[in-house]
Amino acid sequence: MKLSFHEKNGVVILEPRGKIMGGPDATVLHDKLHDLIAEKKLKVVIDLSEVDWMNSTGLGILISGLTTLRNNQGDLKLASVTEKIQSLLTITKLVTVFEAYDSVDEAITSFGAAARA
Amino acid sequence: MNWLIVIAVFYFLLGAILWLLGSVIIRENAKNRVNRVTGLMLFFAGLGPLFAAIGYAILPPGGAPGQTPLPVYYNLFYLWELFFPQLLFFSFVFPVEHRWVAQFRRTKYLIFTPHIFHLLLVTLMTRPNLGGLAIQTDSPLLQGLLTPLNFVLNSFGFLLSILFEFHLKFFSLINLLYIAVAIWSLRQGYKRITNVRLKSQGRFILGGILSAVGLYTVAFILPALGIFPLAEPLRIALAILALLTGSIGIAWAIVRYQFLDVRLIVRQSLVFSTSSALLVGVYLLLITQVSAFIKDVLEIQTPLIDVAFIVLVLLFFQPVKHRTDELIQRLFLRDKADPRAILESFSREIASLFDMDDLKKRMIGILTEQLFIERAFFATRDETSKGYVLELKGLSDELFSGDDPFFVMARERGRPVAFEEFVLDRPLTPATEVLSRWGCRLVVPIIDRGELTALLLLGEKVSGYRYGVEDFHLLATLANQLAVALTNAVLYREALEKQKMEEELNVARQIQLQLLPSVLPMGESYRVAAFAHPSRQVGGDYYDFFDLPEGQLGIVIADVSGKGMGAALLVSQLQAFLKAGVRSRLPIPNVMANTNLLVHESTSSERFATLVYAELDPASRRLSYSNAGHNHPILIRRDGQCELLDCGGLVLGVMPSACYDMNHVTLEMEDLLLFYTDGLSELQSPEEEEYGEARLIRFLKENRHLDPEELKNRLVREVTRFALGAIGFDDLTMVILKMCDGRTTMLSSDMSS
Prior knowledge:
The complex is a heterodimer. Chain A is α/β, with parallel strands linked by helices. Chain A has one domain (2-116): 2-Layer Sandwich (Transcription Regulator spoIIAA). Chain A is 45% helix and 29% strand. Chain A is built from four helices and six strands. Chain A has helices at residues 24-38, 56-71, 83-91, 104-116, and strands at residues 2-8, 11-20, 43-47, 51-54, 75-79, 99-101. The longest helix of chain A has 16 residues, at 56-71. The mean pLDDT of chain A is 86. Residues 62-69, 259-263, 332-336 and 744-753 of chain B have low confidence and may be disordered. Chain B has four domains: 3-134 and 150-258, Rhopdopsin 7-helix transmembrane proteins (Up-down Bundle); 271-331, no CATH class; 339-493, GAF domain (Beta-Lactamase); 516-752, Phosphatase 2c, domain 1, CATH 3.60.40.10. In chain B, α4 runs parallel beside α7, α7 (140-192) runs antiparallel to α8 (196-224) and α18 (564-583) runs antiparallel to α19 (588-602). The longest helix of chain B has 53 residues, at 140-192. In chain B, the strands form three sheets. Chain B has a six-stranded antiparallel β-sheet with strand order 3-2-1-6-5-4, with helices on both faces. In chain B, strands 8, 9, 10, 11, 14 and 15 form a six-stranded mixed β-sheet that branches. By secondary structure, chain B is of the alpha+beta class. Chain B is built from 23 helices and 17 strands. The termini of chain B are far apart. The A-B interface holds A 22, 30, 55-57, 59-61, 63-64, 67-68, 91-94, 96-97 and B 559-563, 604-608, 610, 628-632, 646, 648-651, 654-655, 678, 730.
């Protein structure tokens, strides 16, 4: 897995590519999420368009990122979820927990809407 | 006894002192270029006073120095002037070699050309009578022809003699030029020195050479130019004084600041000289005694016997001298260690040392006890920070950046390097600052496969000696051995860690296996088969059956996220939570919600579990279940219809407040229900194609008539074939439940047994 990121309108967009599996490269994503929380950057979007697959460890990282962000009054949203990941989220019923959007821009806008609301 | 002899003895002593200094400096470390160049320079300088001494000794009484009967002596006298190119050479390599010296590997010796030419000239042409070149003849005819030729020859001879005179007069100018360049070069080097100790050394040398040049200019160059004529003896005396101040300045600087203990060097040289003199004396005494004895007894007197005897004695002289040297060094100076013995004992010991700290301790022991080094420490690479930790005993370890020029240079050099070289003309770095305060003398890089894994840092020797060429060789060999040994130690530690991890995995596997039921439940109206194949890394798959009151059967299948010990422990907790809930006979949704809460509370945020819990009531054939984010169990009806059991809620352990639904299905005869984990559906072919839910449903439909045990075996064979034998990356777990009537069960059971 490779990870790049950028910031837009105060929202950090993480772009993992490849498979999010257990092992050393998954910790990169885990560490990044927790670094963001330490930096008080609490609006995070994970762009999953380039993620082929995710195992339970990868899912665990997303869940942990989500709960920690929410405990800090932040949020983590998913964007461009591929079909396979979508089915994984459906089976695990995590669709009820994660907010998922068709595009990164929509996900970013949703933060703005929440702030205005 | 006349005063000339006194002067001769004085000059002789001066020459001898210079030679002794030269030999002491070369002896200190013959492999060191500065030592060699300095030694040779002092040798040439010593030639001057020695020849002067000979000049005075062979001078006829009352004669002036110029009237020696031996022209050969005068010719050889000029040999000492090789001192000037040698001085220039010295200025190039001291205190640090100029960078371009390495570039002119051979051509740098061209600086000797003018002097060699000068030597040849004065040796071959002892003030030639060049006017005598003209050809004499009696024939008037030839005379007529020869007159113009003779004119040319005479003119040429005249020109040559002028050149020769000019050369003799002004060769001093070349020497002066050499001195000027040498001073300039030394000043350049002096400016670059940052080390205080070396700065004072350079000051001595510059001072010595400046005074020498001043004296030499007054003695030779000014008189040669006709400015300040002086008497011949005074000039020679001035020249020798010049030599003395220059050479002694250099020698003193080197002895005082480069050698650590001058007294020790002098003492050693004294012992060697005395022992050599004693040996020679004994030999001479022997020769005369034996020769006298032969003369007396055999009454023959021939020089042949003397010669033969001297030859014989000389043959023995060298080995005896060598032995004496060794003996003195071992007994008196205690500095020489036997490198071979040290290497042997070290190789033997490191073969049995696998612990890094033991190795280091042993190495330091050998260095301090057998090489007589006062202090030795290691700096080892810190893998996390890519820096180096200096392990000073009793002090707190200091961490230095791996980019420190000190470590970069040590890696580049790759061999033992005198610490001086790191600080001579370089600014102090954090590492060299600490090391110079600590008194580091020698740096031994330990390099393994191009990586600087450690550094051995040595302090002064107990004897106060500098590290000699043998020490460098020995330490280079030790460093190589140590590099191998340290690598082995690292590999050993990794193997131990791996073994520990394997053991941990074994324990985890044991836990997982013990959690699985050892016997399958048997009921009149259902049959059950189960399969579990734990992966090599030990995942968190789990299935279980609970005997419930009134013949009811509880079935659970779960998958805990992550692998290894952590997953195994969560499985065992999950089992406990679930059992507690089931035993209390709470409704299934409450059991699920309680378990969810307990998992959430007892694990970190990234751990979770998927789980299906189902209860079968054989009497009503009703199956109640709740699915917490697990792969949907597949129900295949007798007629091939397929249903998925997806009702339930979120995976366990994520949201403490999650709620769970329950659903019921009524199972008919021959209905087939498969519970499985993602290890089965996500099994991949070599082309990375997943087996998938659809393929699984098709297989179950096609084989729904089989009894559970047989179906399980076929399914395992099928997916193994699909993955081409490559199962084992993930846990693979399944539970098959098939409804039947009691008689068929008994029958099939009979048939299978």
